[in-house]
């Protein structure tokens, strides 16, 4: 049983007390303490807003804003009650009404209105707009940020735990800005409520003083109106601090240091600007008619500060490290022992202007990231991929790369020199060439490096060209993984398995299952995007089924049955699985349409029936994607394999699972039911 934490009761208790304050009159001494606490809390929140490096470090701020607003309104209600009943609401409000504004109602109202304009017109409106735009841009940039995380994961720069942490950070960021968009409305409503409450207090105090207590008009104004203005100022000052905190939190664009250090660091790099500004102000002091002392004093002080900063920058530059200007030629052949006549399993051809991403002296890390990619895919798919041969190709257009599988081009993309890829939906204002991200097909634009800050400011995700290339290469390798599995690799996999599960390998030999049959099962699984990391379970099921049948489809079904619920894991999100199903009558019809062709089961349907079936599945899948789901087709295991082949032949790559692949503990979300009898009418 978790240990009870008394601190967890503070917030609920505070909320209850706020509600109590709305109903029960407070003694003036308690009200003084509560008002002081309100101002203190607003100062603490402002200090925290200045100190945080990342808005998510203060992710509780939207809720804090709501509670602080409610607390101020409760104080207004309590103060109004005391003012109207007793003509006195404590020493704090009395001091603000008499001392701060000099005992003048007019001065108090002017000061109050100025504070209201500053808060409502300037700070609150601006912070609300920034929060609204930040929420929209954050949501628009989520796909691109996810792609950037996938690129780093594929390149081996981060592990699964770090990728998960970054994805959670992106989700929290979107939630935070969405909450801030709504919380800014609390601040705006609080500012309006303060004005309305003050006006009501002025009118109510005048009526109570003159009509109920029979005071002279001047005495009623002096007693009640000043207290009402004092109450308005007492509530308006912490409200202004909270509004300022809101603006500071939502406008933070750097997470390198707190706001103070960040500001000093950036100003400290602009010595010439400080000198120029100080010189101009000092010159203004020399003009006739202007006071000389303040202008000259401030101008010379600023000029001296800028001069000191400039001298410090010059010393740092002299002590800096001089980079070499000579960059040796790029060695494009990464393995001299490999003959030019050898056929490589995977080749990456680069245009001449892309060789800088290979050269370590030029900061290129492509080769290291390819090594990381091979390790990542080996962990993901369960097979060791062959090395990627990287070479230059003078026939390629500038900025172009080509991926080849056994010398056959399977993918082509671009990574222009001196450019980065901006991904998002609001790229029209950016300079560069419009394109589409090659893997996720997201609208993008190749922009100059100088426009990177501009792209980040509008919420676009900026990805360097090596990450784009690596992500594209990873997707190509996943798609063609089955083609890359050779019998030699299967032999190496079995030799490695023999160290941990020798009984399985020995039984496979006794059952006279050849490498070719194992290779064919592995290829079929990889073709469907199934990892073979649990090779022992796959082989155990294949061995058992081989005693009954050596039919390739039978062995594939056995291998999938051996993996069981693992097959559905990649598609389950929050214990939910979005499914496209086929009704019972249609499944029976499809089962009767199965024919065996060269040892493979296929569905024999008319072209119209097949096209309509595929179209229904694609439409349901697109609808699910628009709702944020990755759907899978779930059918009986008897028709799963031939249905998968039919979809592949039409270029429809929606995953197909058997109903036995889905655990009963998983929540199934049905996104559509396909009916073949409807397609027969087409």
TrEMBL record:
Its main location: membrane. PROSITE patterns: FHIPEP (PS00994). Signal peptide: none annotated. One of its GO terms (cellular component) is plasma membrane. The keyword Transmembrane helix applies. It is a multi-pass membrane protein. InterPro entries: FHIPEP_1, FHIPEP_3, FHIPEP_4, FHIPEP_CS, T3SS_FHIPEP. The chain crosses the membrane at residues 7-27, 33-52, 64-84, 96-122, 191-211, 280-305. Keywords: Cell membrane, Cell projection, Cilium, Flagellum, Membrane, Transmembrane, Transmembrane helix. It is found in: Cell membrane. GO terms for biological process: bacterial-type flagellum assembly; protein secretion. Pfam families: FHIPEP (PF00771). PANTHER family: FLAGELLAR BIOSYNTHESIS PROTEIN FLHA-RELATED, FLAGELLAR EXPORT PROTEIN, MEMBRANE FLHA SUBUNIT-RELATED. Belongs to the FHIPEP (flagella/HR/invasion proteins export pore) family. This is Flagellar biosynthesis protein FlhA. It comes from Ferrithrix thermotolerans DSM 19514.
């Amino acid at each position: 049983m978790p240990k009870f934490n008394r601190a967890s009761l503070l917030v609920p208790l505070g909320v209850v007390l706020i509600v109590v304050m709305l109903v029960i009159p407070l003694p003036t001494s308690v009200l003084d303490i509560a008002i002081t606490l309100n101002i203190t809390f607003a100062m603490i929140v402002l200090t925290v807003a200045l100190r945080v490096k990342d808005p998510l470090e203060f992710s509780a701020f939207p809720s804090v804003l709501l509670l602080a607003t409610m607390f101020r309104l409760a104080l207004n209600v309590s103060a109004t009650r005391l003012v109207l009943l007793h003509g006195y609401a404590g020493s704090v409000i009395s001091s603000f009404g008499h001392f701060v504004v000099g005992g003048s109602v007019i001065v108090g109202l002017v000061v109050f209105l100025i504070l209201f304009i500053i808060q409502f017109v300037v700070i609150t409106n601006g912070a609300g707009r920034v929060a609204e735009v930040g929420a929209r841009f954050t949501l628009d940039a989520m796909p691109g940020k996810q792609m950037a995380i996938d690129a780093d994961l594929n390149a081996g720069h981060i592990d699964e735990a770090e990728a998960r942490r970054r994805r959670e950070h992106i989700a929290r960021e979107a939630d935070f800005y969405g909450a801030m968009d709504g919380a800014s409305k609390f601040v705006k409503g609080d500012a309006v409520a303060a004005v309305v409450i003050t006006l009501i207090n002025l009118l109510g105090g005048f009526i109570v003083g003159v009509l109920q207590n029979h005071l002279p008009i001047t005495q009623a104004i002096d007693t009640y109106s000043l207290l009402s203005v004092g109450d308005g100022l007492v509530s308006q000052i912490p409200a202004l601090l909270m509004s300022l905190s809101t603006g500071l939190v939502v406008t933070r664009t750097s997470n390198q240091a707190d706001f103070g250090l960040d500001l000093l660091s950036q100003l400290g790099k602009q010595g010439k600007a400080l000198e120029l500004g100080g010189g101009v102000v000092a010159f203004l002091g020399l003009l006739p008619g202007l006071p000389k002392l303040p202008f000259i004093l401030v101008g010379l002080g600023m000029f001296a500060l800028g001069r000191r900063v400039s001298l410090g920058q010059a010393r740092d530059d002299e002590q800096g490290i001089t980079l070499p200007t000579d960059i040796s030629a790029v060695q494009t052949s990464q393995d001299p022992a490999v003959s030019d006549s050898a056929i490589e399993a995977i080749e990456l051809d680069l245009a001449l202007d892309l060789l800088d991403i290979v050269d370590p002296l030029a900061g290129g890390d492509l080769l290291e990231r390819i090594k990381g990619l091979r390790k990542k895919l080996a962990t993901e798919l369960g097979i060791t991929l062959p090395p990627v041969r990287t070479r230059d190709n003078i026939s390629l257009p500038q900025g172009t790369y080509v991926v080849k599988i056994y010398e056959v081009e399977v993918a082509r993309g671009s990574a222009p020199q001196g450019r980065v890829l901006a991904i998002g939906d609001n790229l029209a204002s950016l300079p560069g060439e419009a394109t589409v991200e090659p893997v996720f097909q997201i609208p993008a634009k190749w922009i100059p490096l100088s426009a990177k800050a501009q792209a980040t400011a509008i919420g676009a995700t900026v990805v360097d060209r090596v990450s784009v290339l690596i992500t594209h290469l990873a997707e190509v390798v996943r798609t063609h993984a089955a083609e890359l599995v050779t019998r030699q690799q299967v032999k190496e996999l079995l030799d490695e398995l023999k160290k941990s599960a020798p009984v399985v390998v020995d039984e496979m030999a006794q059952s006279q299952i050849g490498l070719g049959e194992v290779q064919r099962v592995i290829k079929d699984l990889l073709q469907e995007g199934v990892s073979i990391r649990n090779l022992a379970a796959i082989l155990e099921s294949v061995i058992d089924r081989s005693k009954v049948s050596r039919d390739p489809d039978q062995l594939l079904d056995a291998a999938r049955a051996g993996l069981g619920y693992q097959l559905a894991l990649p598609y389950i999100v929050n214990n939910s699985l979005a499914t496209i199903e086929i009704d019972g009558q249609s499944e029976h019809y499809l089962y009767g349409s199965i024919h065996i062709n060269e040892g493979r089961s296929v569905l024999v349907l008319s072209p119209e029936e097949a096209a309509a079936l595929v179209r229904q599945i694609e439409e349901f899948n697109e609808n699910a994607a628009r709702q944020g789901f990755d759907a899978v087709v779930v059918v009986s295991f008897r028709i799963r394999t031939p249905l998968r082949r039919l979809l592949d032949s039409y270029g429809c790559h929606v995953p197909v699972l058997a109903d036995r692949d889905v655990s009963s503990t998983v929540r199934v979300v049905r996104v559509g039911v396909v009916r073949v009898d409807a397609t027969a009418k087409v």
